[in-house]
Please model this.
Amino acid sequence: MHGAEIIAILEEKFGPRIRQKKPDTIDPYVVVDAADIVEVCRFLRDDPRLQFDMLNCISGVDYCEPEPAKAAKAGFEPHLEVVYHLSSFVKRHRFVVKVILPRWKDNVEGQLPEVPSVTSIWPAANWHERETYDLVGIRFVGHPDLRRILLAEDWEGHPLRKDYIYPLEYHGIRGR
Amino acid sequence: MATIFPPEQEQIIELDVRTDEMLVSMGPQHPSTHGVLRLVLRTDGEVVSEVTPHLGYLHRCAEKIGENVTPIQFIPYTDRMDYLAGMNMNLGYSLAVEKLCGLTDKIPEKAQVIRVIVCELNRIASHLVGIGAYGLDLGTFSPFLYAFREREMILDLFEEVCGARLTYSYITIGGVHDDLPENWIDRCRKFLEWFVPRLEEYHTLLTRNSIFIKRTAGIGVLPKEMAIAYCCTGPMLRGSLDRRKGDPPWDLRKIEPYCGYDQYDFEVPIPPFDDAPIEAVIGDAWHRFFVRMKEMEQSARIVEQALRKYETARGSHRIEPPRHLPPGEAYVETECPRGQMGFYVVGRPTKESVPLRVRARSSSFCNLSVTHEICRGCLIADVPAIVGSIDIVMGEVDR
Model:
């Protein structure tokens, strides 16, 4: 099934809750609100026409230009995106769902933005969400065990944020 | 002869041996964890009730590096992810960037054929390490030595092609770095002639080895539904499929052909197998191992066809990629020896040479995330047998 058809099915079901649709991009995608993500994902998995039973990847993308001189020409407003790459074992098609988040919750720096966890739909999300939390700094609400996975437990900051400051020292180990 | 305890005086002594739960840390320097994986086992006597993998000992934040270098500069970093299948990693990232730049249909035929040749040879080399090291985990040393003998020949072939034996950086954006050297095709054919009959030796050493069967058959059974829910791919998923139930041979080379894989005649081995021992059940460690064995056969078949194709292939081995990445994003998955390796590349709206984001979806990472499910209730001695059958490369898990 092509991206445009999947988008049509989603629009028929969710209407204006599909915030954006991009059927013509390289990988067609839709944008939904964080509050709707669990419901949309459950529909994508359970609808007999779609059957997205595999969650291939969750990625966090930080749209931000830390240098003030370049920020005006960056071509985007600062925000975060959570990108869900789905595929179907039965139907053999792929689709992408996105959630757009502010960089910080309530615009308070240091407060991680929140998105509901989809671990209840695909267990594969467990480690992907932990990784996204660890590296990009997005809190997945409802995740059973949201700990850092790749970095040390006492690590500070989230390295894949564009404004991340490299630590000079970690437990007496000097960086550069 | 008088007995010390005549039957009427025999008493049954009940020994009330209580076992406490114990946490055992396995790794990160344990030889059977294939690198630096640390498993914390909650054990009750010999039985494992819970496994918690701890990752990150090899983490280099390759994704952050990818945001700061151009795609061609990032190719050597992809080698270091799955260092046993560098060619396949190079290919995955190159395809993702090519998809973003709209080059997918413009890659010349010759470049495609060379890519297929080296990727399939690399798959053989990677599976050889996989099964050799798996034998090592289970206490048989010789298959490992034989596997390395064959792998050495592939590495020699690769060395001739690109100068490197492990981190090739040979496949690059727009094609491959250099054309194949003179007479390489003949040497590759000689290798295949030598290699294919050797596979039977492995079957004797491992597949039909009764100790090996006892250690692997019926161990770590992964049902198909669970494999899909955890997005396990590659031999891990294929070992759990059942042709009789109408499961498709799930291999991206067949399902979403890239690099012209649709023009090759090969099969995707999935259970049931005629050679399976009676103890083996679909989805166990033995089946995962056997799928790898069968895949080597098929890879050799593909290489043979590709070598024939190379002689008549048109075009150059490489085209010039654009200097700047267009805005937009592309996600590509390829069938690597360990499963589906995905690369997600986001270009900046301002058309710069460096991407905004590079994401590597690692197959070993997803395959490993199912460990706690399939290890539940097994014996401690079976944990290396199960983890070995997943065939992880920590460089790829931690990236």
User: Anything to note?
Assistant: Chain B has a mean pLDDT of 87. The interface with chain A takes residues 55-56, 59, 61, 63-64, 67, 99-100, 226, 228-231, 248, 250, 255-256, 327-331, 333, 340, 342, 344, 346, 348-350, 356-357, 359, 361, 365-366, 369, 398-399 of chain B (CB under 8 Å).
